[in-house]
Amino acid sequence: MPRMTDQTRIASRVRSHTLDPIPALLAVLAVFAAVLLFAATAKANPMLWAAAWPKTDFSKKSIDYSEILSGGPPKDGIPSIDKPKFIDAKDDKDLGPNEPVISFEINGEAKAYPLRILMWHEIVNDTLGGVPVTVTYCPLCNSSIVFDRRLDGLVLDFGTTGKLRNSDLVMYDRQTESWWQQFLGEGIVGKMTGKMLKMLPSRQESFSRYKAQYPKGKVLVPNNSFMRRYGTNPYARYDSRSGPYPFFQGEMPKGINPMVRVVAVGKQAWSLPLIRDKGPIRTGGLEIRWEKGLNSALDSSEISEGKDVGNIIVQRTKDGKKEDVVHDVTFAFVFHAFHPKGKINTN
Prior knowledge:
Elements: H1 6-16, H2 24-41, H3 46-49, E1 68-70, E2 85-88, E3 100-106, E4 109-114, H4 115-121, E5 123-128, E6 131-138, E7 143-148, E8 150-151, E9 154-155, E10 158-165, E11 168-173, E12 179-181, E13 186-189, E14 198-200, E15 203-206, H5 207-213, E16 218-221, E17 261-265, E18 268-271, H6 272-278, E19 281-283, E20 286-291, E21 311-318, E22 321-324, E23 328-331, H7 332-338, E24 343-345
Parallel strand pairs: 4-16, 18-24
Antiparallel strand pairs: 1-10, 2-16, 3-4, 3-15, 5-6, 6-7, 7-14, 8-9, 10-11, 11-12, 12-13, 17-18, 17-23, 19-20, 20-21, 21-22
């Protein structure tokens, strides 16, 4: 089988995020156009970007523009959800018990955001417990992070740029059109360069665990169930690969398969196999636990049939009470790319 090139990866990514159904001829033309566009713009060129980003100040940046690649879709080609719709979790009939959701609670209000939806939208702008939040998921990194979207007196809302850096989602805020690195919550291009969004504790856990903890909780449902192929995974077997797609061009971590999941807390990470096989990790006041019963969103073409990668709980005891801690369950190559001097514990 011939090696898949960067151009065919782009075509595949564009095709997977195209409205479904679509006439075959138009789909082919769209993919062909995307390949041509990639050939012309894969290399970073702010002069070419300026037409689509008239408000972005490209003179301000904290990264090298050569690190930014086109992910295929254009600006907002992967549409954020800006008017999210919820139902009582107990009434949902579509999600399997072990399907992954991003869950968290603020001021007594709990919500879950299924990866079967985030897979196709990557960003949800919402308000929970009176706090404006942005819920994000980058499939190529398996990175799910929740942010408080209040900053410097503004309430920001976010969309997708269509760009990637280290295979990670590059977001933008619609107020200043600055670009943000999802994995770090850091402004990297434009007026907000160097600013940091506040991360909020959340879990990537099974729907059944969420319902058990929050029996009165809400769950996100599609605004239009026919808009995308919700429940399917366009990156089938991605987390069984020996390495990431060619969107990633950086250095691989040493001593660990780059596609092994790691639990990242700040600039330190622990491999998921270590936590699973050796029991709870207790260090520096943290307790990191693994519990079975979570479908991988990046394994089978049907998310509900994904292999069991297990739930991760990261907590710290404060005043005799356990509290969730900000963390991310991502791939080893991603953690190493953003924290090259960080430590990945494997034994």
